[in-house]
Amino acid sequence: MGSCNPIQLTGNDLNRIFRCLCGKGYIRNLKENLKALKREMDDLKAIEAEVKNKVAREEAQHQQRLEAVKVWLTRVESIDTRFNNLLSTSPVELKKLCLCGLSSKSVCSSYKYGKKVFLLLKEVKKLKSEGNFKEVTEPVLRSAVEERPTGPTIGQETMLEKAWKRLMEDGVGIMGLHGMGGVGKTTLFKKIHNKFTEMAGRFDVVIWVVVSQGATISKLQDDIAQKLNLGGTNKSEDDKAADITRVLKGKRFVLMLDDIWEKLDLEAIGVPFPTRENGCKVAFTTRSREVCGRMGDHEPMKVDCLGQEEAWELFKSKVGDNTLSRDPAIVELAKKVAEKCRGLPLALVVIGETMSYKTTVQEWELAVDVLTRSAAEFSDMENKILPILKFSYDSLVGENIKSCFLYCALFPEDFPIDKEELIEYWICEGFIKEDQSYKRTVNKGYEILGTLIRSNLLTNISDIKEKVVMHDVIREMALWIASDTFFVQALVGLYKMPKVNDWGAVRRMSLMKNHIEEITCGSKCSELTTLFLHINNLKNLSSEFIGSMQKLVVLDLSRNRYFKKLPEDISKLASLQYLNLWNTSIEQLPVGFQELKKLIYLDLTGTESLRSISGISKLSSLRVLKLKYSKVHGDVSLLKELQLLEHLQVLEITISTELGLKHILGDQRLANCISWLDIQRFKEKPFKMSSLLSMENLSVLHVYGSHVSAIDTYIKCRGSKTDSSHLHNPTSPCFTNLSVVSMVSCHGIKDLTWLLLSPNLTLLEISHSGELEEIINKEKATNLTAHRSKKVSKAEKASL
């Protein structure tokens, strides 16, 4: 037999062995740990079964299991295999125990086995705690981009490229496209959407939602949820928002909202706000530029109508070569029809399709005639075009602003509408609530104009900032809406008063810009409130016709150069608030004129045959009086009458005597009324520019044939006495509102340095003033800028 060599162990060695074998209790606690492991494993398997059942139910509803759930189930499966392996060897390992389980016949083997049981028990407990999932699945996202059907793009290629480039910029999270109804925003938007199919991998999902008028947050949430395969349409808005946020958070998404009408609260919907960091995008289309700003895009892209060539190409594509090739005359007529659409894609498409089966010249001639005379009567116009455009009208808030919009249809096609003249109509019609300050009332009008422009119902004329224009098809929509009460035949070549079937229904009539010479109509126009007769060849207006319009509020007879006499029966127009006789040859005002007690606005500009307006002080409601370029100059007797007009706030007048100017300057209220001043032929004594400093509202100054004394660099403060002790250096500009200065054939002008005191000057015209040596005198300018406000003139145009 062999022999064993004894091993000598110290006390420390024995202690270490004891701690190793007994410290963790791998052997001592083996029985209890096995029992605990079986219990915990049973619990884990129960939790696993619940998770699997829940996953199965939700996957049947087009959900997909979460990655965390996948990993957990895999780990449970793995641990179950290890558990079974350990359990299969447990009887053998338990038989090795001795000393009441405190030791083992095979210490090393039992130690290793006990350690495995202990660690597996710990791992099972951890898996149990991790198996308490609030959510086990998420929506199965559809393909990142589902291409939307759209036809060929004609005339929008450049716009598509620009819009795509801007949307893809890193710093752009929100992008708006705005434009009038029917201009092709949705078509362009679909093209942008489909370009995302070329960008596989950059975005996780592209969501297309049609918003339209009246959309609710809940409805938008449902549409987004459908794309994300989220259920729960019966949930609250907050719960829906939480679901959407949970899915989109951490994903790079693109949300495309077509046809929005007001600001959408992305947070309330549940859409994470797009930032440079998350790389997400929100794009939208709207008819309102204002909505773009409210959504956070302050430099939105405007979708304009097509140019003439692009419009013709689109129209041709809809009509078809088969029709156009029938007769060369059809091609020429087709071009005229296309022109009537003014580049609006909606009209080009609908009218083009309607005409595609019209193969005779006569049918095309009729189309041109109908579109010229009354486009609303054209086939499909009332069904397919005008109702779509009317949504823009319906979205306007308040009946007054809607009335302001419809009023613009009284003007001819493509007619440049002067903004201030339009606002003056609106004020007198009562669309704008009058303020004590006429300027504030006018500003309210500009606010309405801004709303209509931002809604793409009116358009600024790029090279004439004082005017707007209404697109022809938008105008047809307005006339269609107001057809029951409007009678409009402007710029249609009339030579006599047209026939009106039902005068009782007509409230507003426009016959402007025709060739009508006389109106002797005996019909009763008792309900008429607005009558545009300007820019005709009018010579005679019968008393019977005028006298029948007792509800008339606005009467425009301007630019009828042969019109010399107002009927006496004008005194019967008790409701009249606006009367425009600009550039007529009227010789005198009838006696009954003084009975117009409600008259607010009177324009006598350019009435070169009118020499007296004696009795004007009887017009007790008058707020605006325009006398420039008339023979009625501001003599003292007239000015005394004007002083009696206690509501007068705007006065445009020609002054040709020093006594007249002195009289105005002696009445501060009257001086403050002057917005437009024409100084003529002050030759005896120098006309002092500094004398005008008290005219705080002076906007336009014309000086003709006068000796002018310029303003010193040190001048009297506004409203001070003429005593030199009151001279000082003002800290604000003197001519705050002055925008136009014209000086013709003037003497005594060496320089125009004083104009630096006009911060809002936009136009300067100087001619036939030979003594002018320089525009700005350096020394005087130094004094001005050193002692006055830093605001100086910002003139846009100068003519010398």
From TrEMBL:
<dbReference type="InterPro" id="IPR042197">
    <property type="entry name" value="Apaf_helical"/>
</dbReference>
<keyword id="KW-0677">Repeat</keyword>
<protein>
    <submittedName>
        <fullName>Uncharacterized protein</fullName>
    </submittedName>
</protein>
<dbReference type="Pfam" id="PF23559">
    <property type="entry name" value="WHD_DRP"/>
</dbReference>
<dbReference type="GO" id="GO:0043531">
    <property type="term" value="F:ADP binding"/>
</dbReference>
<dbReference type="InterPro" id="IPR036388">
    <property type="entry name" value="WH-like_DNA-bd_sf"/>
</dbReference>
<dbReference type="Pfam" id="PF23598">
    <property type="entry name" value="LRR_14"/>
</dbReference>
<dbReference type="InterPro" id="IPR058922">
    <property type="entry name" value="WHD_DRP"/>
</dbReference>
<keyword id="KW-0067">ATP-binding</keyword>
<dbReference type="InterPro" id="IPR050905">
    <property type="entry name" value="Plant_NBS-LRR"/>
</dbReference>
<comment type="similarity">
    <text>Belongs to the disease resistance NB-LRR family.</text>
</comment>
<feature type="domain" description="NB-ARC">
    <location>
        <begin position="156"/>
        <end position="324"/>
    </location>
</feature>
<feature type="coiled-coil region">
    <location>
        <begin position="27"/>
        <end position="61"/>
    </location>
</feature>
<feature type="domain" description="Disease resistance R13L4/SHOC-2-like LRR">
    <location>
        <begin position="506"/>
        <end position="711"/>
    </location>
</feature>
<dbReference type="GO" id="GO:0006952">
    <property type="term" value="P:defense response"/>
</dbReference>
<dbReference type="GO" id="GO:0005524">
    <property type="term" value="F:ATP binding"/>
</dbReference>
<keyword id="KW-0547">Nucleotide-binding</keyword>
<keyword id="KW-0433">Leucine-rich repeat</keyword>
<dbReference type="Pfam" id="PF00931">
    <property type="entry name" value="NB-ARC"/>
</dbReference>
<dbReference type="InterPro" id="IPR027417">
    <property type="entry name" value="P-loop_NTPase"/>
</dbReference>
<feature type="domain" description="Disease resistance protein winged helix">
    <location>
        <begin position="410"/>
        <end position="478"/>
    </location>
</feature>
<dbReference type="InterPro" id="IPR055414">
    <property type="entry name" value="LRR_R13L4/SHOC2-like"/>
</dbReference>
<dbReference type="InterPro" id="IPR032675">
    <property type="entry name" value="LRR_dom_sf"/>
</dbReference>
<keyword id="KW-0175">Coiled coil</keyword>
<dbReference type="InterPro" id="IPR002182">
    <property type="entry name" value="NB-ARC"/>
</dbReference>
<keyword id="KW-0611">Plant defense</keyword>
